[in-house]
Amino acid sequence: MTVDQSVAFDAPTRRIGDRVERVEDEALLRGLGRYGDDASIPPGTLYAAVVRSPHAHARIQSLNVEKALEIQGVHEVLTGEDVARWAAPFAVGVRQPMEHWCLAVDKVRYAGEPVCVVIADNRYLAEDGADAIEVSYEVLPVAVDPEIAAEDSAPVLHEAVGSNIVNERNFNYGDPDLAFEQAAHQVSLKVKYPRSSCTPMECYVVVAHYQSASGTYDVLSNFQGPYALHSVMARALKVPGNRLRLRTPPDSGGSFGIKQGVFPYIVMMGLASRKVGAPVKWVEDRLEHLQGASSATNRVTHIEAAVESDGRVTALRYDQMDDCGAYLRAPEPATFYRMHGNLSGAYGIRHLKVRNRVVLTNKTPTGLNRGFGGPQVYFALERLMQRIAVELDLDPLEVIRRNLIPADQFPYQAPAGALLDSGDYPGAVERAVAEGGLDELLERRNQARAEGRIYGIGYAAVVEPSISNMGYITTAMTADERRKAGPKNGAVSTATINVGPLGDVSVHISSTPQGQGHQTVVAQVVAEVLGIDFDSIRVNVELDTQKDAWSIASGNYSSRFAGAVAGTVYRAAVAIRDRIAKVAAEQLGVDVEAVRFANGKVFAPERDPIAFHRVVGAAHWAPGTLPEHEGGALRETAFWTPPELTAPSEDDRVNSSLCYGFIFDYCGVEIDPVTGECRLDRYVTMHDAGRLLNPALVDGQVRGAFAQGLGAALMEEFAYGRDGSFLSGTLADYLIPTAPEVVEPVILHMETPSPFTPLGAKGAGEGNNMSTPVCIANAVADALGHADIQLPLTPSKVRGLIGIEEPPAPEHLKREVEAPSIEGGSALHASDSVEVPASPQEIFDSLLDPAVLAAIIPGCHQLVLDGENRYRADVTVGVGLIKARFQALVQLSDLEPPNALCLSGSGSSPMGSAEGRAQIRLTPIEEGRTRLDYQYDAAVGGKIASVGARMLQGASRVIIGQIFSRLSQQMQGETAPTGTWSRFKLWLRRLLGKGGAA
Amino acid sequence: METIAKQGARVQLQLNGRVREGFAEPRTQLCDFLRHELGATGVHVGCEHGVCGACTVQVDGKSVRSCLMLAVQAQDSRVDTVESLAEGELMSDLQLAFRRNHALQCGFCTAGILMSCAEFLGREPDPTESQVRDMLSGHLCRCTGYTGIVRAVLEVANERKSKNGEK
Ligand code: FES
Ligand code: FES
């Protein structure tokens, strides 16, 4: 029995659908949040630092931990050997002989791959220990570009597989070949979607405690789910699920999918704790995060459409290749299959042919990232729709309109299996056109073009899936393999409501929110159902796998909260309300159907209302008075899985998600003809996410996703050198949009409730990550008339598209000699001059003096003669977060006494290699004074290169500048200042300008 | 070098109005000292290389990135963190405006942003939107797209103006 919803009284505010302020905010605004690194830790907790590979592909020849262990305060080092002894490789979603361990056991396959873990009294000491670890590597050839990696001749990452292509599946829905044969036109396009990440501001945190008496790994981590990975971790640790207790802290500093990728570190730190016999804490730093945490999957797509003359698309062919990095880490290859059922997008296309190939390369393994799979699919599909318009000389919006699924066809069965639950796509488009002011925007384009400015308009129509089917990933297997493995489907959500002895209501959900405000929405739902005060409800979102209700589908991903989790809360609330209604019916002496809940009271017609807390109090204080079958103590846990989420069919159709929202975006972009900068003139985004539970929070999600989509479109990319070195290791290199760069989008909503979720809500948080990159790309394509548009559209890339040549370097900066280079690394060059209080001859002589040389090279510990004007040197160099000790060769050459000479050096360190050459020219300016001009070229590779060109340019300028200013001081008889730190700080301050740097 | 690193010092400073003292190595960053030694966990660390702004605190009234400063450099200074913004248990006008305008989601960047905004509004009582955005350019927020933050700052400036006008 379910009690009727309607209440006769004025609905109190802060119910479902209201723009309620968040209950989360006060603690966060007052600095009282409790994030991973704030959690209290057991006494005696030690700290870990991870030693990572500087090479993208290498065999580990030896690992020497002795020097690290000599440091006082360093206790243990966890190595691949320990891991091989205690653990197992992670389970993989495809059947292939490849192993991924939490630490490299014999080979490293990407720059940044963990090699060992140093455990010490504190983090600083652990990092000292990490610096002292000696690893020798046999460097192997790399496969970095996915298309090259897919070729037979490419170096193979996992030898036993014999190829870098680890999974291939071909799908046919309808009769695509016939449709292509009969089509009036065929339009095709090749696109590449780059690597990027939504990079939460908080990095990974793990506190692991191995409890040897019970053999339990007790771990606190800011993991975000999906909790299917709990099984992957438990199996890797070789323990039953009940011996891996995984807990999450109350607050999270963002995730956007990325914190799924902490799971290998949970295993790693569990083992580290076991090794050292104490709790171990690890807090990831930003370089580690950018380089080695996770990434969206980069994809190469050939897409083709069979098109009628009026622009209607009858069939699509997708040939997609996903680059999942060095290991296929669970849940990959999910980037493909999350979108599989709805590959035909918002369009009524009936025939579909798909080839999906997964290729491994020497890059960081990929994983969940907001929009998961969507940006990649829509970048191909919506670019193609724009190309169809161009090639058929039609209006791009008209092409979209003619292909949209009509409103009367919902629920709509898409060819690859998605059951699109509800919507009115044409209606949404027309409302967006009218309410967002498309006509005016078109007018602005006309005007701009008439004035000779470069201006374009782009569109994107996107279906936004939410609430993943836990079985979709098995589409990567053949029907035969699936039969053997057993069916996988569904997605169980949980919610628990407890009514305490004082009438206080607590709720627990297993959605591990990452800042979206789940507590607020849950309280809204419960307040409405129980008719109690919103503020009185407490919602707990910490998850403890040993005590709470959870399922493998738990966690914060696939926009499952509004549709599935809030819906399950609703069901739990209704269940407990029904129990309370029975108790109240007895107290009020009425039929249970007559009982109503509102304003903190329980009512029935012609009866005095009873306070909510009195009614429920009986369940605790006087259980003897309860009606029959009421056991007392009011607690309800609801589990809910939608029946629509069935396993993939024999013919590979899969309803990959439960809900499908709709987004229609358009934007105007103006391009600066000189700088190549893209400026958004207006961005309109229309969303239909079903019923909105709290529109203010939905708008927040849209704005956040839009800013990330803008970043993906214009600036964000994980760059790799040709040698596989990682080049985007700081936030000065990996650029994230800041406030001046983000325009305010025009947000529009319509609400077509989902028939499949308890509250009619769908997910809304990922849509703009899917729609915005391609919408902006379409506007740029429209502005420039180009077909080949690749993201991110950085100013320099756009200048290339416009055809602006970079101006030649000024005469005095031209280089006469060939610059040193390191294959695939980062190259730097600059010039400068200093005045030295000595004659050219004196300076020249000093430079040939090893004592002077040793004194002026910053961080030089030792300089030993190795031949004429050649030295072996032991030098510590610090750049940004990285400090490395180099074994270097220093040489003086091209001697033209006393006018010129060349100072060069090359060296290698555990952090990578570096090479540099400075041309020095000495010009007398007055008695006893000389101007020393120098011009240098340098190149670095390996981990050092990961701090990125911007940081390196500055740091190398500082370090090389130091050599000559020290020389100048030497000639004055002064001692040179020692710390590079203060100089580095100065440089940073300059870099950051007004930003308020120390 | 190893021994120098281990030599610690007692560092004394005034944290949010209270004299506090703790132990720091010469290389201990101010953010680590504030968080782990003195318990001011409202200070957040997002990059440790001076770009994200999450660790912003005020040292002697000026906004500073506490990841770019050593604890020993703060000896005898007045350090104010986000924990100082509320009056006891009552949030400040700025904090309330942040909540009203949904200017935070995960809240990780918020501590630093509030400190910069508080200082900025003291310096610039009548800012334009572009000045606010410019000030915010020293901070990274991955959740909000900045809209709510900009609105909150402008709203507080207006509120304070009209309050002062009334007087
Ligand atoms: S942590 Fe200090 S600026 Fe990012
Ligand atoms: S609120 Fe999450 S980073 Fe700003």
UniProtKB/TrEMBL annotation, chain A:
GO molecular function list: iron ion binding; oxidoreductase activity
Coiled-coil parts of chain: none
Domain Aldehyde oxidase/xanthine dehydrogenase a/b hammerhead: from-to ranges: 30-141
Pfam families: Ald_Xan_dh_C, COXG, MoCoBD_1, MoCoBD_2
Entry-linked Gene3D superfamilies: 3.30.530.20, Aldehyde oxidase/xanthine dehydrogenase, a/b hammerhead (3.90.1170.50), Aldehyde oxidase/xanthine dehydrogenase, molybdopterin binding domain (3.30.365.10)
Keywords of the record: Molybdenum, Oxidoreductase
CDD domains tied to this protein: CoxG
Source organism, top-level taxon: Bacteria
Record's keyword annotation contains Oxidoreductase: yes
SUPFAM superfamilies linked: Bet v1-like (SSF55961), CO dehydrogenase molybdoprotein N-domain-like (SSF54665), Molybdenum cofactor-binding domain (SSF56003)
Statement: the UniProt record of this protein carries the keyword Cytoplasm: no
Family to which this protein belongs: Belongs to the xanthine dehydrogenase family.
PANTHER family: ALDEHYDE OXIDASE 1-RELATED, XANTHINE DEHYDROGENASE
Protein name per the record: Xanthine dehydrogenase, molybdenum binding subunit apoprotein
Lineage of origin: Bacteria, Pseudomonadati, Pseudomonadota, Gammaproteobacteria, Oceanospirillales
From TrEMBL, chain B:
Signal peptide (residue range): none
Superkingdom as given in the UniProt entry: Bacteria
Keywords assigned: 2Fe-2S, Iron, Iron-sulfur, Metal-binding, Oxidoreductase
Keyword Lyase: no
The keyword Calcium is assigned to this record: no
UniProt domain 2Fe-2S ferredoxin-type: residue ranges: 9-85
Pfam families hit by this protein: Fer2, Fer2_2
MF (Gene Ontology): 2 iron, 2 sulfur cluster binding; metal ion binding; oxidoreductase activity
Gene3D superfamilies registered for this protein in UniProt: 3.10.20.30, [2Fe-2S]-binding domain
InterPro entries given in the database record: 2Fe-2S-bd, 2Fe-2S-bd_dom_sf, 2Fe-2S_ferredoxin-like_sf, 2Fe-2S_ferredoxin-type, 2Fe2S_fd_BS, Beta-grasp_dom_sf, Diverse_Oxidoreductases
PROSITE patterns registered for this protein in UniProt: 2FE2S_FER_1, 2FE2S_FER_2
PANTHER family found in the cross-reference section: OXIDOREDUCTASE WITH IRON-SULFUR SUBUNIT
Protein name, as recorded: 2-furoyl-CoA dehydrogenase 2Fe-2S iron sulfur subunit
The organism of origin for this protein: Marinobacterium lutimaris
Upper lineage: Bacteria, Pseudomonadati, Pseudomonadota, Gammaproteobacteria, Oceanospirillales
